[in-house]
Write a structure and sequence with these properties.
Blueprint (H helix, E strand, L loop, with lengths): L11 E7 L3 H18 L3 E7 L6 H11 L3 E6 L5 H11 L4 E4 L11 H8 L5 E9 L4 H17 L8 E8 H7 L9 H7 L4 E8 L11 H15 L2 H31 L6 H33 L7 E5 L6 H4 L10 H4 E2 L1
Parallel strand pairs: 1-2, 1-4, 2-3, 5-7, 8-9
Antiparallel strand pairs: 3-8, 4-6, 5-6
Helix pairs in contact: 1-2, 5-8, 9-10
Amino acid sequence: MNSNCSSERIVFSVVVPMYNEVENIDQFYTRIIKVLEGLGKTFEIICVNDGSKDDTLFRLLALHKKDPRVKIIDLSRNFGKEIAMSAGIDFASGEAVIPIDADLQDPPEFIPKLVAKWQEGYDVVYATRTEREGESRLKKWTAHTFYRIIGRLTRFDIPKDTGDFRLMDRKAVDALCQLREHHRFMKGLFSWVGFRQASLPYRREPRFAGKTKWNYWKLWNFALEGITSFSYTPLQLATYFGLLVSVFAFIFGLFMLFRTLLYGNPVPGYPSLIVVILFLGGIQLLTIGIIGEYIGRIYNESKRRPLYFVQEAIGFASNQKNLKENPGGGFSFHEEKIFKN
């Protein structure tokens, strides 16, 4: 198997976050290597092992031994897909970076279309899903609803029905690497950096093998992460709702005052009183929860911890320029212990 010459500039860096994807690795490699070699440019495939509990790492090591263009970042534990993807982007040295999932829902064969659009002068080319095969109607509906809600809440455009599958020019990647917040909603970060962006439609395929790691509870938390990362509208809604309740209470108080003056003091209405107390108590708890969510984020960011730690990085040069320029990424181990060729 051919390897890229170390003195030759890498054109394409493919970033693949992996968590328990051993069933998909071989098929993914077979398909993507055919596509990348067909482009006729130098490339690297950066596989980020996000604390997998199966044989993902061992299979990746075997692939690296067979093909040095497959490079491995073994994180010290499971940090989650968003941070694993960030680690891969930090390590990428290509002129263009392409994040893609290992489950083959995003077809590698679509990459040449992204490249062609990039060559027209766009800095970011993202793939927009026209179909989502292999997913339930409920999941499709929740995803559709989420993208439209967050689109209304944010002050910049987050493309609808668009995941992480895209191509980013080095200019956009360098800007993205400067964003070091811990609560990372990558779809929002991709859009927030701006630059010239274009969309290409594609059909998302079912998983090749294995089961999705995303249940509805995780999807709910992911949606909450996205909304609170890029919008303070929930805080504004709490304020507006509190103002509305206060106005209603004032008007109701005036009504009760005039009623008492006209008809005297009626027998106290305990059921209605209990309902009002429970209603206002629920609103207060909801508001406290919203405020607490934002305060918790401030608390986490104030710790200024690295995003991740690397157990081992295999196939990278220890003097790689883009790593030196991102000290906040989590490279706190001695480099000679991390980097292996």
